[in-house]
Specification:
The structure is a single chain. By secondary structure, the chain is α+β, with helices and mostly antiparallel strands. It has six helices and four strands. The longest helix has 13 residues, at about 40-50. The protein is elongated.
């Protein structure tokens, strides 16, 4: 027996599957993976902005209050960036969008299906409601347009 044959025999003894079984497993058809949307809120925001381009009389701007979740190597950078944004006036709970139209303005928050407002966001909404400033939460483009319609923006 050659050395290659001896090594092959030892590997076959140690292996959990035989070469024939491995070959069959590799040829077996796979189930298609379900595509997972890792950032549904981001996709909702992009769709909202694309939709709002059809309403040029409505001014829409995104309020960039969020920072990405840092990994350990970037943690110090994001802590400094967070402090810097706070010093510049960042307010926790500020919604994603400031909407302005002739005769008014309001705030909209985009959320993925099944998610609600944070404590800070709810406090922001309550404070604006006391001042008569409309705020809304949407989980779909249809919801956003319905909110804007009730405000008289679209």
């Amino acid at each position: 027996m050659t050395i290659e044959q001896q090594i092959g025999a030892q590997n076959r003894k140690a292996a959990l599957v035989t070469p024939a079984e491995l070959k069959a497993l590799l040829k077996a058809p796979r189930k298609p993976r379900k595509k997972r949307n890792a950032q549904p809120e981001r996709e909702l925001c992009k769709s909202f902005i694309r939709t709002m381009r059809f309403y040029p009389h409505v001014y829409v701007t995104h309020i960039p209050n969020e920072l990405p979740r840092p990994d350990k190597a970037e943690k110090e950078f994001y802590e400094r960036a967070g402090r810097h944004l706070k010093e510049m006036g960042r307010i926790a709970g500020t919604p994603d969008y400031l909407i302005e139209w002739k005769g008014g303005y309001g705030f909209l928050e985009a959320k993925a299906q099944g998610r609600g407002l944070s404590t800070f966001q709810q406090a922001f909404f309550d404070a604006r409601a006391k001042r008569g400033v409309p705020c809304g939460l949407f989980t779909s483009i249809d919801e956003a347009l319905a909110i804007l319609k009730t405000w008289g923006a679209v």
